[in-house]
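hey so i finally got around to running the thing on that chain from the lab meeting. sorry it took forever, my laptop kept dying and i had to restart like 3 times. anyway pasting the input first so we r on the same page abt which one it is
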Amino acid sequence: MKLYQPLNGYCYNSDTMFLYDFISKFNLKGKVLDVGGGCGVLGLLLKRDFPKIELTFIEKQEIMVSFIKKNIEENSFEAEVIEGDFLDYKFNKRFDFIVSNPPFYQGTLKSGNEIKKVARYEEYLPMKEFFKRVNELLKERGEFIFCYDAKRIDDIILKMPKPLKVTDVRFMYPRLNKRATLVMVRAKRHSKSLVNIHPPLIGFEGDSYSLEANNIYKKASTQSIKI
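ok and heres what got predicted. didnt touch it at all, straight out
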């Protein structure tokens, strides 16, 4: 799948690939919203694998909206694209699934590139407000699947608003002897299930991708074109 990206802006990385693989393990159907779509990679990979879903993107940066539209056309998909702030936009429908690789970095060391700042830093989509809005927009049995900084797992659980409940968690470790850097989470409204802790995902073995990570990249099969 060809994906155009900005030459000097934020580009998708392994987090999005691993999140795509995690989401694809579940039965995606109905109305799906990709929050903070970037260039559209996550939503379009899901649309490719689950062609019957009704896909909507919301992205606040005008330049990234143009890339989403270009990538939809390039890959001959159908999807709705909304330019707006997820926290403020007035939707006219609710969703079966909301997916997102949101900005989750904290701190003061920030890029001077505005596109990268909006894509990376949590202040542009604060966790508590983000989760609250997701909860409002999901259907009664809706699901929320996303990734975040692994060190924030306590905040994720504490700030998940009822009736949303975490049902699945998977941690990604860069290497076997390193601490987890990414957590992928599935939450469902009105679920009574215990939490399913999935086996860890290891990024690298030696100087190469692990077998699983390599297979995820092969499954995604994306070609990035920077313009």
